[in-house]
C-alpha cells in the first residue's frame, strides 16, 4: 500500500456508515480506495448495500482533513501500515470477513512463520496458570511459533514474557493507538517486545483504550492465529469472547482444565464441557491436534545423539516402535499400557530429543 492509497483508505473509513466490511467491498469493486472517490455514482449504487445517503457522505471535506492528520502522525512516528490486500497483512486475518481494512504496527514483526497461536485468559492468573503457561511455551519453543496476545494483565503479559524468555517472536494486539501504552505499568516491556515482535492495532492515534475497543481487538487476536489457547478464565470474560470468535472463524480452540471449585477454571471447564474447545493438558495435545511436524531443518538440530538418555517409559515406547515400525498413537498406548494424555507428552519429549518422528496419518516411528 502506498502512502497515497493509505490516505484515501483512511478517508474512506471516516465516512459515517462505512466500516471495515463496507470499505473492503468498495475497494474490491473499484480497484483501490482512491478510485472509490472517482467512481461514478451509478456504478457505486449498483454495489449491494450502497445507497444514496452513504454516497453523499463520501464527499464530506472533514473526512479528508481527519485522514490527513492521522497520516501526518503515521509519517512522523514512522509507523508501518498494512492493507488487507498487502502480502505482509496477516494471512489468516484476510479470510475473516470483518478483519480490519488497514492495520498499523511497530517493532520487528515477521508474519512469514506458519505457526501462529494466541494465548489468552484471565487478568488474575494463578500460580497454576503461570506454571502451565511456562511449561507450554518451553515445550513449544523448538517449533518456533509466534505467540500472540493482548498485552493485558495476567495471562496476556505472562505469555508475552515467557515468549521473550524462550526467544520466540511475540505480538501484542492493542485496543488503542500506537501513541500510548495500556496498561501504563507495561511500558517496561515495550522495548523487549519490539526487539523480536512488537505491536499491531487497527486503532488510530485518536483512539483510547475504551471498553468496546477490547472486543474489536479480540477478533484480531483470534483471526490472525491458527489456534487460540485459553489458559484460565472465570465464567465470563474477554478471553471467552476471543474463544467464541475463534470458533466462528473455524479455528481450533484449546482450554486448560482446572478443578471445578476454582473460580478461574470455570470458563475453561465450560468450554471443554460444551465441546467448544479441545482439552489441553500439555504441548503434545496441541501438536497432535494441529498436526504440527518438526520440519527437516529443525529435526536436524535436535537429531538423536549417540547413547541419549531416555526415561523408563520413553525407553519402553522407543523399544516398541523400534520393533514394530510405524504405529498409530492408540495402538502405542494400548501396547505400552499408557493413557493417551501421558503418551502424548512422552511422544513430544521423544520427538524433541530426536529419537522418534511423527508421520502423516497420526503415525510415529523410531529413528
Describe this structure in words.
- The chain is α/β, with parallel strands linked by helices.
- It is 46% helix and 13% strand.
- The protein has 17 helices and twelve strands.
- The protein has helices at 3-13, 20-30, 33-38, 41-45, 52-57, 61-76, 127-140, 155-165, 190-195, 211-223, 238-248, 266-273, 283-290, 296-301, 312-324, 329-336, 340-353; strands at 80-83, 102-107, 116-120, 146-149, 170-173, 197-201, 227-230, 252-255, 278-279, 327-328, 356-359, 363-366.
- The strands form two sheets. Strands 1-2-6-5-4-3-7-8-9 form a nine-stranded mixed sheet, sandwiched between helices. Strands 10-12-11 form a three-stranded antiparallel sheet.
- Strand 3, helix 7 and strand 4 form a beta-alpha-beta unit.
- Helix 13 (283-290) packs across helix 17.
- It is elongated, with a radius of gyration of 23 Å.
- Residues 295-306 have low confidence and may be disordered.
Write a brief caption for the model:
The chain is an alpha/beta fold and 367 residues long. It is built from 17 helices and twelve strands. 46% of the residues lie in helices and 13% in strands.
What topology does this entry show?
Elements: H1 3-13, H2 20-30, H3 33-38, H4 41-45, H5 52-57, H6 61-76, E1 80-83, E2 102-107, E3 116-120, H7 127-140, E4 146-149, H8 155-165, E5 170-173, H9 190-195, E6 197-201, H10 211-223, E7 227-230, H11 238-248, E8 252-255, H12 266-273, E9 278-279, H13 283-290, H14 296-301, H15 312-324, E10 327-328, H16 329-336, H17 340-353, E11 356-359, E12 363-366
Parallel strand pairs: 3-4, 3-7, 4-5, 5-6, 7-8, 8-9
Antiparallel strand pairs: 1-2, 2-6, 10-12, 11-12
Helix pairs in contact: 1-6, 7-8, 10-11, 13-17
